[in-house]
């Protein structure tokens, strides 16, 4: 139980932000955090370092977001376009809005790189894409810059 509290304290906000970037809904993002921590509690994985722990949690959260996006329930619910998180400044919200309009394959890479600070190599490993092309990142960045 102590390790779950540790994971929530150190990675909770990161997981919610990542989930929100996929789902565009704070309640669903918080649900993904809860499900991620439940998975953490059930599996009790052993980690060699804190980076491995964070990567595992992020990977689980990404998979849960993708599963939620595939569900028929999620596809039928209208998501308000103007939903904003209170702690985000106006400039950040414009950038976040531009990132949210990207296709998922670009959005996840841009989010992990800019908001979470992962390198392209780490993103490749986290998303389990062997040769994540730098082009994917560049295209996402280019699309995002055109929208702002």
From TrEMBL:
What are the recorded GO MF terms, alphabetically? DNA binding; sigma factor activity
What superkingdom does the record give? Bacteria
Q: Which UniProt keywords apply?
A: Sigma factor, Transcription, Transcription regulation
The keyword Phosphoprotein is annotated on this UniProt entry? no
Q: Quick one: a GO biological-process term for this protein?
A: DNA-templated transcription initiation
SUPFAM superfamilies registered for this protein in UniProt: Sigma2 domain of RNA polymerase sigma factors, Sigma3 and sigma4 domains of RNA polymerase sigma factors
Q: Which Pfam families match?
A: Sigma70_r2, Sigma70_r4_2
RNA polymerase sigma-70 region domain residues: 11-73
User: Taking every annotated instance into account, which residue ranges of this chain make up the domain RNA polymerase sigma factor 70 region 4 type?
Assistant: 94-128
Family, per the entry?
Belongs to the sigma-70 factor family. ECF subfamily.
Query: Could you tell me what this protein is called?
Result: Sigma-70 family RNA polymerase sigma factor
Organism of provenance: Brevibacillus laterosporus
């Amino acid at each position: 139980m102590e390790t779950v509290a540790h994971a929530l304290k150190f990675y909770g906000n990161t997981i919610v932000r990542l989930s929100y970037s996929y789902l565009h809904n704070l309640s669903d993002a918080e649900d993904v955090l809860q499900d991620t921590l439940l998975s953490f509690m059930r599996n009790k994985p052993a980690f060699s370092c804190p980076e491995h722990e964070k990567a595992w949690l992020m990977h689980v959260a990404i998979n849960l977001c993708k599963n939620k996006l595939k569900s028929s329930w999620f596809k039928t619910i209208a998501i308000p376009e103007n939903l904003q998180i209170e702690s985000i400044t106006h400039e950040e919200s414009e950038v976040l809005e531009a990132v949210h309009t990207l296709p998922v394959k670009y959005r996840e890479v841009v989010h992990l790189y800019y908001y979470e600070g992962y390198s392209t190599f780490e993103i490749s490993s986290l998303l389990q894409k062997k040769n994540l092309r730098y082009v994917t990142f560049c295209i996402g960045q280019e699309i995002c810059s055109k929208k702002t």
